[in-house]
């Protein structure tokens, strides 16, 4: 499914006008965010911020790991999928032990970024596969070779949620 755009930069540019950005954000806040807040009885985050060095480092890691596992992949074959996710409630916060995040994020939504690589399936269709699950057979062989230690997946999640952080710098 290809998204349509009506901005002055053209539909293929990926750039959006301020008016379109504002409309899309307001649609989310009036529909999805308000339903989440009412249903769960919380004030969920409406945005997440990542610093540029962290994003660049994550992209460099994707490129490096892709070249190890799929050396034939080009830059155009790589991407990032953003999964909508939610932090656990406080009573289950112990699952966050290996991923230190402030408890004030409990129950709020977040994003998890997972690298993707473009591959053609058995039927000849092109898909953007999650990088961590791309070559399960290779992953299993590596796991066995390391004595059963499963390889850590590549993913990024440490952004700043707003709220609870102050929204003072947000334009939208």
From TrEMBL:
Region annotation Disordered: where it falls in the sequence: 149-172
Top-level lineage group: Bacteria
Protein's UniProt name: Uncharacterized protein
């Amino acid at each position: 499914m290809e998204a349509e755009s009506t901005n002055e930069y053209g539909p293929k540019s990926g750039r959006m006008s301020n008016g379109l950005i504002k409309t899309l954000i307001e649609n989310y806040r009036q529909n999805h965010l308000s339903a989440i807040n009412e249903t769960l009885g919380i004030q969920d985050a409406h945005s997440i911020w990542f610093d540029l060095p962290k994003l660049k480092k994550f992209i460099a890691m994707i490129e490096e790991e892709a070249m190890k596992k799929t050396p034939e992949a080009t830059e155009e074959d790589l991407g990032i999928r953003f999964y909508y996710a939610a932090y656990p409630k406080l009573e289950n916060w112990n699952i966050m032990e290996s991923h230190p995040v402030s408890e004030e994020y409990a129950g709020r939504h977040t994003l998890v970024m997972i690298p993707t690589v473009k591959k053609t399936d058995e039927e000849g269709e092109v898909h953007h596969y999650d990088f961590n699950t791309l070559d399960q057979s290779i992953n299993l062989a590596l796991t066995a070779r390391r004595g059963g230690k499963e390889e850590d997946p590549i993913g990024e999640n440490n952004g700043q949620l707003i709220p609870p952080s102050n929204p003072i710098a947000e334009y939208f």
